[in-house]
Amino acid sequence: MDRFEAQHLLYAERVRESFSRQRVMDLIGATLGDVEPGRVTIALAHRADLVQQHGYVHAGIVGTIADSAGGYAAYTLMPEGSSVLSVEYKLNLLAPADGERLLATGRVIKPGRTLTVCELEVEVWKDGTPRTCAWGLQTVICLRDRSDGPG
Amino acid sequence: MDRFEAQHLLYAERVRESFSRQRVMDLIGATLGDVEPGRVTIALAHRADLVQQHGYVHAGIVGTIADSAGGYAAYTLMPEGSSVLSVEYKLNLLAPADGERLLATGRVIKPGRTLTVCELEVEVWKDGTPRTCAWGLQTVICLRDRSDGPG
Amino acid sequence: MDRFEAQHLLYAERVRESFSRQRVMDLIGATLGDVEPGRVTIALAHRADLVQQHGYVHAGIVGTIADSAGGYAAYTLMPEGSSVLSVEYKLNLLAPADGERLLATGRVIKPGRTLTVCELEVEVWKDGTPRTCAWGLQTVICLRDRSDGPG
Amino acid sequence: MDRFEAQHLLYAERVRESFSRQRVMDLIGATLGDVEPGRVTIALAHRADLVQQHGYVHAGIVGTIADSAGGYAAYTLMPEGSSVLSVEYKLNLLAPADGERLLATGRVIKPGRTLTVCELEVEVWKDGTPRTCAWGLQTVICLRDRSDGPG
Question: Which of D102, D142, D148 is nearest to D118 (CA)?
Fold first, then answer.
């Protein structure tokens, strides 16, 4: 993966501030982890009220943290006065989200003035061992008329 | 879209029972709507704790109800003693989920012994008018060794 | 599906002219069919040199006509002086492309100033009967600085 | 990326034999490159009859070599007496396929008894320098009743 350079000095603060306004992250208990140029992680502890019928974290919640991780990864590379919006995402569910904790990583594959493409990976940690449980691809768009994060 | 026939007499009861065990649906306030052979809807009222940074329902929550609607649409066509699992889904976000209420519809495009493909549509209702805010495509797999719904 | 209005009087001529420059369509023997606002079809006769190892038309060739059908469907709705480019496409292969002839249809789901989302369907005709063999979703971008079709 | 082990001693021969029956590869001039457990490459020289209206290799042809590279990457890990079929693929087009030569790489992310998920990457080489022009994700299915490759 290439290394990227942020265009905005306060890119990490901007991501953290925007994340704090994603109230759904509070609801599900997700927390922001690493914020680097082109790479952002979001962690989520297992909770009994996040599950589908087999007791694993629901694929849509896996998608929720993956989508935000990718959107914010793209946002780290965007200029001042811009905001991002998810255009589309696709997620392959490789294994049940069965463990104590999920870690979603969004990585920019291709930054662009208008569109940025990210790779999404979600690992599930069980008994101290990580396992990739979802892998995805996402397109996000940079909007120049307002200052805000993805979603 | 074709018309499909359920293989299981109690397909609707089976879906409702499985949905009731998707505890994440309680957390976000989603409710099951129509359950027909090859077609299922899930409704979600807007709530301030479901939003991203602009105040719209988060794309991942949109994906959560879309994924379950599609999974259960597939499940209506599966034989007794089977369960479904989402293999992958892809969602295009067409408009912000800005309104009082969302309605996700999962429609089977192609049923199959092992794999079923569904179309996903999410409408947002605002001031009494619906607008499609997300459109997707999903692959689900039928597992023959246990009796359970998607997720 | 909604009905759309073309913004350009000569939208059909523009599509036909651009298609004629897609030399790969000549190579595989694809021909342009209907060109309506928001909807374009492309036909392809079976040929022994288009196949994969089982003798069916290769999934990538199915994708080639589907991608162009969707791109041109989007192009019918774009203003003068613009061109389109595929941003991404996703295709589910529902059945082998086993028949005498394929018909790809691109339908605009959501037109936009910058991004347009299309639904892609490919039917295979065998012994006079059509069967859907692929279903997809595509995002295309409108570029304002040159006059050209998708690809 | 993990390292994988082939289950079939003659996995490479099996891939080469199947590829030789994909007659569309002859038509477009694609050649098989590396065949390793979980990783296969396919090369394609630029040709004037492969292009879309701007003179770049058509996105569908990019998809054709990407889809086969991924399908064969999955096939390297499958047992004797099995065949593979693409279930779905999604491709993000990151840059025009503008160069002398394309190289598609299929990499297995997650092998499975029934479904295998692959990452697809296509590089375009121009003046001796590679550039990623497409990135994708693919699901392939293992069929146990016949011995054949993907497509």
Answer: D142
